[in-house]
Design a protein that fits this description.
The chain is mainly α and about 90 residues long. The protein has one domain (about 5-90). Helices cover about 55% and strands about 10% of the residues. It is built from two helices and four strands. A two-stranded antiparallel ribbon has the order 1-2. The radius of gyration is 23 Å and the shape is rod-shaped. It binds zinc ion. Zinc ion binds near residues 17, 19, 37 and 41.
């Protein structure tokens, strides 16, 4: 797991109050009930909204992992090519 993926997951877990901008950990939420912000604003979060967002983020994260894998494979193949070149070219 890359650090960027982890950071993004943390971002998903924070819910911002639309009135004052205070951030709340989503794990403190009771779905469909919401919480009362310190400014008095009720912050609600629909379960579907949350899972949709999480799904989107995970999809993006999966793509990132694929790109990471691809670049690893690319680096590995470049190494192999240079090894082959070393073997072919007599010292
Ligand atoms: Zn607030």
């Amino acid at each position: 797991m890359s650090m960027s993926g982890k950071d993004r997951a943390v971002e998903v877990m924070a819910i911002r109050c639309p009135k004052c901008g205070r951030e709340y950990d989503v794990t403190l939420f009771e779905f469909e009930k919401g919480v009362i912000c310190e400014c008095g604003e009720r912050i609600g979060l629909k379960h579907k909204e949350f899972t949709d967002n999480l799904g989107k983020e995970l999809k993006h994260y999966e793509q990132e992992v694929e790109e990471e894998k691809l670049s690893k494979i690319k680096r590995a193949s470049e190494k192999i090519v240079s090894l082959i070149l070393i073997l072919i070219i007599p010292a």
